[in-house]
Amino acid sequence: QVQLVESGGTLVQAGGSLRLSCAASGFTLDDYAIGWFRQASGQEREFVATISWSSGNTYYADSVKGRFTISRDNAKNTVYLQMNSLKPEDTAVYYCAADDFDLASAAPAWYDYWGQGTQVTVSS
């Protein structure tokens, strides 16, 4: 069974840091791009960051550039999102997703598998 499981979301104060994890089971992440997206209450899902498995290239939304870092651990079949200097506007449910074309796109439609999400709440 193909699954992506996010973890690491919690309540944190503004200026703090969190690291989210996205663990894959039922398949290996080889040849997949992995993206992080987020959805705040009442808003549409938006792109946060993505990493190409084949090239290792990373791309970020302007709103998180310089604060968030996406990385991968091949041995653990896991992708991470390190989030620093968190702001209240980063509050959202964070989802990871896998794209088997390895396009590393910002468009959610390219992603085939999605996790259930993990809540990040940043208090002011």
Q: Which structural class do you get from the secondary structure elements? A: mainly beta
Low-confidence stretches: none
Number of DSSP helical runs: 0
Shape: globular
| Pattern of helices and strands | EEEEEEEEEEE
N- to C-terminal distance? 40 Å
What is the number of E strands?
11
Query: What is the radius of gyration computed over CA atoms, rounded to a whole number of angstroms?
Result: 13 Å
Helix content: under 10%
**What percentage of amino acids are in beta strands?**
over 45%
Q: Note the main sheet.
A: 7 strands, mixed
On the 0 to 100 scale, the average pLDDT is: 95
Question: Can you tell me about this structure?
Answer:
The chain is an all-beta fold and 124 residues long. Helices cover 0% and strands 48% of the residues. The chain has no helices and eleven strands. Strands 2, 4, 5, 6, 9, 10 and 11 form a seven-stranded mixed beta sheet that branches. It is globular. The chain starts with a strand and ends with a strand. The mean pLDDT is 95.
Summarize the structure.
The chain is mainly beta and 124 residues long. It has strands at residues 3-7, 11-13, 18-25, 33-39, 46-51, 58-60, 68-73, 78-83, 92-99, 113-114, 118-123.
